[in-house]
Amino acid sequence: MIGIIDYGVGNLFSLCSSCKAIGEEAFVSGDASQLAKADRLILPGVGAFEDAARKLNDSGMAEFVRQQAASGKPLLGICLGMQLLFEKSYEFVCHQGLGLLKGQVVPMEGKLPANLKIPHMGWNALQIKGGTLLNGLDGQYVYFVHSFFAEDCEDSLSAVTEYGIPITAAVEKGNVFGCQFHPEKSGNVGLSILRKFAEV
Amino acid sequence: MITKRIIPCLDVRNGRVVKGTNFQGLQDVSSPVELGKFYSDNGADELVFYDITASAEGRKLFTDILTQVASTIFIPLTVGGGINTLDDFDRVLKCGADKVSVNSGAIRDPQLVHDAARLYGDQCVVLSADVKRVDGQFRVFAKGGREDTGMEAIGWIKKCVDNGAGEVVLNSIDTDGVKGGFDLPMLEAVSNAVDVPVIASGGAGCAENFVTLFERLPKVDAGLAASIFHFGQVKIPELKQLLNENNIPVRL
Fold this sequence. Notes:
heterodimer; A: alpha/beta; Rossmann fold; eight-stranded mixed beta sheet; four-stranded mixed beta sheet; globular; B: alpha/beta; TIM Barrel; 10 helices
């Protein structure tokens, strides 16, 4: 059973539906005692890092997620949820993340060739660098929407995508996984990733 | 490299897709759920559902249908039609829409784009503009392209983008339905004026029109069409093969 962490950011309808579509029981909750019963957790998120990090901390969910990850429970961060796994983000000013993975989140602005639009939005191809979750998906397309990206994360990097420069697409370290793209919006490829996560 | 997107548009009235379709193998060609699933399984990169219902009952039916669509189709969904307030945004986002398209609502209330972008993020707000040439000027039209607002289109679109619209669907009334190709001069003017994704709409009659669009205007990110897909004149997998053969990046 997958617990989807609700901490007041973003729309969880599609994520919940896609878990059901792969035959996996899933529930959305903001209650740590409920989420503790799940076999695995998904940390979703859209919007701004600062706002999300504050909501995670204020709700006590940040500490809960750290504990659960430390206990070995599989955790998958999606989009902003992936970015929150890192130590810090430079969105406007520096903000602390969950610190589960080494690395930082930085704006694309100023780092991409000038002709590329920000946000990086649309379907882009995966280049697999390692890990287990995306095994066999080299060259497959997944759906991205983001303006920030993770860097200095070599020790967890499992996939990149090319957008003028290599952009961190997925990370993995032990039981902690992250996808910058949206598996719940990436068609059958995305569903296969969620299925794999459900079997970790 | 990011791919060019191919987007079928489904107009829905009273819970049914209007404009006939002639697909083999679909039990109910007017079912938004079945047709959406068909497109999703056959290479569509995104779907646009447009609610053209006038009545409140029809609107309720549309949101029910949308919930079913979003429970079965896992590619990005854009929803438009009758989006006039933040409550309308909320209504369709709760049913699983990823992006919301505003047209007349943005003309009536210039604050709407701004407020929605603040609340849901720029990436969620799509400006859909119906534009037609009048006296040598690009003009914004309202009410499904029936009413000249008198506003110059490029400046208006630019203002909406500055207010937070994260994407622009440019529908040329001049080429819509003509099937002679997309309106390249109009698209060029808009894609030079804004730095958010631009989706071309209106005029596609054959697969080659998409090749011309992306070759001539590399700044255009996506092509949208309805009837040529619904009637099977252009099949998306074949269209994407053709684009790929012409070195245009697509998701195959």
